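It is worth pausing here to work through a concrete case rather than discussing structure prediction in the abstract. The textbook approach is simple: state the sequence, then state the predicted structure, then interpret. We follow exactly that order.
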Amino acid sequence: MLDNRMRYENWLERDSEMWTWHAVNVGQFPGNALYTLMARAFAPLPERLLNAAARMEKLPEALAAIRGDLDPARVPKVHAETWARQNPGVISIIDGMILPQAEALSGADRSRLTAAADALKAAVNENQRWIEETLVPAAQGDFRLGARLYDQQLALALDSPMSRDEIKRAALARKQEIYAEMAEIAAPIVTIPANERWTAQRLIAQALEGAAAQRPPREGVVAACEAALAEATAFVRTNDIVTLPDAPVNIILIPEFQRGVAVAYCDPPGPLDRDLPTFFAVSPIPDDWSQEQATSFLREYNSYMIHELCVHEGVPGHYLQLWHANRASSVLRAALYSGPFVEGWACYAQDVMIAQGYQNRDPLARLTNLKMALRTITNAILDIGVHVEGMEREEAMRLMTVDAFQEEREAAGKWVRACVSSAQLPTYFVGWSEHHALRRETEARWGAEFSLKRYHDALLAIGSPPVRHARSLLLNEPIV
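Step two, the predicted structure:
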């Protein structure tokens, strides 16, 4: 794992030269430098504030260096525009997380903190002017990696034997299987007029309207997530599916400097800070969205989908799995976690919950679960299509909204995510497929000794290596 990570970092630095064109990645550096200091109380507050002051004193120079490194001719416009929306979030960290706690310092230390904050805010504003007036108008790079670079990154990001072609073939085959199952569930839900013949796509779409109609209010997404997470946790405990964490999880809004790419994510403490809170971050509905756009978002993240989201990000998904990983015997396996293992586990966990009867075996819950499976599949097809096959926005939107039943706001956001990231979206499908295969193999080998809790606890105790290595460790076979 360490060897693979070192080769990946070398690829990012030397082969892809992302520091010269990936404005979103490099642009988040200042926000991450401060947010990681202030989000968790891993050290006394005065110590963290002094470190924040030291970093803020250096960050204006860092921003200038970023501007000097970026080549507008290579920066894609979608990257520049996304950074323009994220950059002001650095100031929200200063004003919302650092300065309100400045009273923990006194005298020269406090003066140093406020002076550094003022200087950095001025530098962020200067950076914003440069992004808007220079970078965005001049940005003309191609966001597509192309086959050579994409295949190199995919191999390093996945650390899996599956190639790009194998992933796409498997995804298309699985898509047809999911469609058939969705149509079977939808048939009893939908009444088709006697004189009409509907396609499977129309039948499924109509059935999903029943789920879309049950949604939280515009300001109620976080509250709905809190309720769903509590329900999922109670279900796991009652059904003894896996050992539950004893460290806290807090549902928060995604910090402003990170918004515009993902709808939600899980931010765990590091393996050396294992008892600190995990953050389950949810994107707020932007204030400038119309009611139509907000409704599109809420139709996607309806009450059923919120349960799927909380299982994926929370219990028994990321929060639970990464809590186990932080307690594994290998700190290295926790620190250098495999994307396919982590994302694949969360997708697998959604299936486990439905199979065990979560949400009272409601057919709309199962249908929504399968819609999420389609999203997992579509993520891989989309990423390959965008970066290698020249997929344009119209084709991508049709893939997501028609073939995968996603709402317009979800699909529009995923298009941006595919344009500003690469080789991450396939981790869901690859890991999901590998986790299910490992579960089937282990169940066959263990026979009568197999139980869900025994299997899950044993697998998660390994940490977060690539699934092929987890298999070797779990089944006591040589690492290959």
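Step three, interpretation. Residues 17-138 form one domain. The chain has a mean pLDDT of 96.
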